[in-house]
């Protein structure tokens, strides 16, 4: 078993999304900073470009304390190529809807993987 698989009960959920989504999760108590003062969240607005989203995603998947990454689907669309090539079990990547943009199951990373697996 790898170090990633030994997360335990202190594992974190990270969130990347619009301000409403991230704020909601922070109010629910998921906010955290690691030892190097890196947060487990990214608010994506019109000032954040796709390279910053991609860099944050890569940092989140490299962290050993993150078990799940929640990402608004419209944010995931900006790094779809990176998501499509992601093949790790932990952290799990879950696309979630946002308040303003409808959810499209045909774009969902997990659903597409399940369809590939099932044929």
From TrEMBL:
Keyword flag Repeat: no
GO terms assigned for molecular function: proton-transporting ATPase activity, rotational mechanism
A GO cellular component annotation in the UniProt record: proton-transporting V-type ATPase, V1 domain
Alphabetical UniProt keywords: Hydrogen ion transport, Ion transport, Transport
Superkingdom classification of source: Eukaryota
UniProt key word Chaperone: no
Similarity section: Belongs to the V-ATPase F subunit family.
NCBIfam families: V_ATP_synt_F
PANTHER family: V-TYPE PROTON ATPASE SUBUNIT F, VACUOLAR ATP SYNTHASE SUBUNIT F
Subunit annotation: V-ATPase is a heteromultimeric enzyme made up of two complexes: the ATP-hydrolytic V1 complex and the proton translocation V0 complex.
Function according to Swiss-Prot or TrEMBL: Subunit of the V1 complex of vacuolar(H+)-ATPase (V-ATPase), a multisubunit enzyme composed of a peripheral complex (V1) that hydrolyzes ATP and a membrane integral complex (V0) that translocates protons. V-ATPase is responsible for acidifying and maintaining the pH of intracellular compartments.
Protein name: V-type proton ATPase subunit F
Source organism per UniProt: Acrasis kona
């Amino acid at each position: 078993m790898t170090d990633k698989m030994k997360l335990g009960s202190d594992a974190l959920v990270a969130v990347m999304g619009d301000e409403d989504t991230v704020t909601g999760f922070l109010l629910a108590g998921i906010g955290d900073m690691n030892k190097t003062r890196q947060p487990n969240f990214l608010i994506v607005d019109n000032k954040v470009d796709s390279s910053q989203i991609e860099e944050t995603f890569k940092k989140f998947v490299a962290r050993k304390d993150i078990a799940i990454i929640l990402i608004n689907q419209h944010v995931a669309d900006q790094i779809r190529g990176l998501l499509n090539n992601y093949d790790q079990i932990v952290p799990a990547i879950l696309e979630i809807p946002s308040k303003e943009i409808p959810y499209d199951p045909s774009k969902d990373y997990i659903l597409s993987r399940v369809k590939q697996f099932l044929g």
